[in-house]
UniProtKB/TrEMBL annotation, chain A:
InterPro entries per record: Cro/C1-type_HTH, Lambda_DNA-bd_dom_sf
GO molecular function list: DNA binding
Entry keyword annotation includes Transcription: no
Name the record gives this protein: Transcriptional regulator
């Protein structure tokens, strides 16, 4: 799944550590999500959408493999 | 995040304490009857029961730590446990078969399987962690 987490985080001037703290996961998890190696759970995706003030579908784009 | 780290450290310490006491009680239950209490009829089963209770507390401490993992850590550890369980069953039965058919020059002791399980889980966690970096 593609996502815009890195761009949105940088626009907000946040570090991975700060985003991880806000969401309640580890920095490694944020890094894996940004590198699209790991798809977050629904609660994590909703927390991110709430933080960035955007709908989930504009942050995450589903791709058929 | 500081609170999370402190909680994580607390749970890791708790698991470390129960693991080490389990190892110590296992050594006492194994060597005690022969070297400490000369096969006393009460102390031997008592030492075994203490070791079993300690092992159960170690498992609960491990579950406590697992419940504190985030979603990626859970995925890493669950996949590692799956691989370890599968390999332990398959390799363990092959090892036992080799012993039964006298194809290896030593007995297939449970200790070998425990060591194999530990090393397998460690390797699987390291490989899976690297995959998501």
């Amino acid at each position: 799944m593609k996502n815009k987490i890195r761009d949105l985080r940088e626009q907000k001037g946040m570090t991975q550590e700060e985003l991880a703290e806000f969401i309640g996961v580890s920095r490694q998890t944020i890094n894996a999500i940004e590198k699209q190696k790991f798809d977050p759970s629904l609660p994590t995706a909703f927390k991110m959408a709430k933080l960035f003030g955007l709908p989930i579908e504009s942050i995450f784009q589903f791709e058929e493999k | 995040m500081e609170t999370m780290k402190l909680e994580r450290t607390k749970r890791i310490r708790k698991l470390a304490v129960w693991t080490w006491t389990w190892v110590v009680t296992m050594a006492i239950a194994t060597f005690g009857p022969e070297f400490i209490w000369d096969n006393h009829s009460f102390l031997t089963p008592f030492a075994i029961i203490v070791n079993l209770a300690n092992g159960i507390l170690m498992i609960l401490a491990n579950r406590d730590l697992f419940n504190h993992f985030d979603e990626l850590e859970r995925k890493i550890h669950l996949e590692s446990m799956g691989i370890t369980l599968g390999l332990t069953v398959v390799v363990g039965l092959t090892f036992s078969l080799l012993d039964q058919k006298d194809l290896i020059p030593f007995d297939a002791e449970i200790g070998f399987l425990v060591m194999f399980t530990g090393l397998c889980y460690l390797a699987a966690v390291l490989i899976n962690t690297h995959r998501f970096k």
